[in-house]
Design goal:
Distance between the termini: 55 Å
Radius of gyration: 22 Å
Number of helices: 5
Largest sheet: 7 strands, mixed
Shape: globular
Strand content: 35-45%
Bound molecules: CU-O-CU linkage, copper (II) ion
Amino acid sequence: MKDPLLTLRRREVLGGVLGLAGAAVVARAPAAAIDLPGIPLAPSRRPEPGLVELALDAAPATLTIAGRPAQLWTYGGGFPGRALRVREGETVRLRFANRLPEATNLHFHGLHVPPTGRADNTWLHIPPGEVFGYEFTVPQGAGGTHWYHPHAHGTIARQIWAGLAGPLIVDGALDAMPELAEADERIVVLKDLALADGRPAPHGVMDWHKGKEGDLVLVNGAVAPQLGARAGTVRLRLINACNARYFRLGLEGRPWHLIATDGHFLERPQALDDLLLVPGARADVLIPLEGPGEVRLRHLFYDRRTPHFTPERTLLTIVPRSGARPLPLPERLAEVPRLRPEDAAARRRITMAMFLLNGQLFNPNRVDISGRLGDLEFWEVENVGTMDHPFHTHTWYFQVASRNGRPEPFAAWRDTVNLRPGDRLELLVPLRSYTGRSVYHCHVAEHGDKGMMGVVEVR
Ligand code: C2O
Ligand code: CU
Ligand code: CU
């Protein structure tokens, strides 16, 4: 067992030895801020135009987290996992080696590729010691901020908690507009962790109910790092890769603008106040850095109706580059046609409550929703439970038509959306491009594992 007081006592002893002068220096020196770590790319090569080959392994590794050694499960030896970065229209061949002591697989969260075969097929389990070749083609227009993580049912929460999560970025045609291309673009993976004896703290009974949170709130694996801006505008690709932690984010020091939700551009930038980023969700934001003075990305209080209390804190400090001028905001981003409920071919109702969807536990052999390829569907999702639940769909993403009867202020594509207790959301889900069996679930990882998951089959 590690005694947290031990470090303190040793410091006190050291202070005594160094005497007053030493102590004064220590007291005045500001905590040396760590630079926001970049996330190295997974090894890749492009042997011919339109084809990208990637290599990734899942393997245990000992890393230094918040100054302490931590034995984690990693993708490519990193925490967060190595970045997978591909282009719209490319065929991806990904050689995945499972060097963990148990079965796992990959889910490409947010990527619109088939849920079958060698693509985003979460029904496959890769045994320990085996290598599997994933292969799929990224459609045109799929550019965006996504992520990947394990999805072998029943082990998802434990494996994500052990460290398995990485960014999946698709570069698209729209990213080339100068207002975006000239910005300082950073991938920002938010992931929490708690260590016990140098390993991810094991799940206790209550963790399965509340969803597991950790005291270490890490930004690309670091505590409260600093970002020295390289341009007058910063574009953050924010990813919530936590099992259960909700981020209500605020920005102190400058206005900020939402440009994409879950990897899909909006029609135009939306001025942001607070941003709620639930587990699984992504947001791309632009921060024009007019004038000097730091900017702080803050983790604000949010009550998701569990007895969790996180003190508010700064996640990231942005230091503007002196003399750099902000870029103009893009006037138009993507075409986002507003889907209409009256065009829906089928209506579904899904209730959410602890561990159950529509009163039932997940059964991989039961088809809960059976749809037709090309249909637009209207899904009414209601949280009939007592805590928040983030609802997520694989393969087919959606628009929120209304929340509690109120229409959404602007059209946006999403794959993950929060429901507070009592919330009733109307979703419009186009079942397009692919047939096959896929899933939808609560993205508190523990809740999904315990049964808050359903099967949708499209033929
Ligand atoms: Cu991140 Cu089944 O999802
Ligand atoms: Cu997903
Ligand atoms: Cu849940």
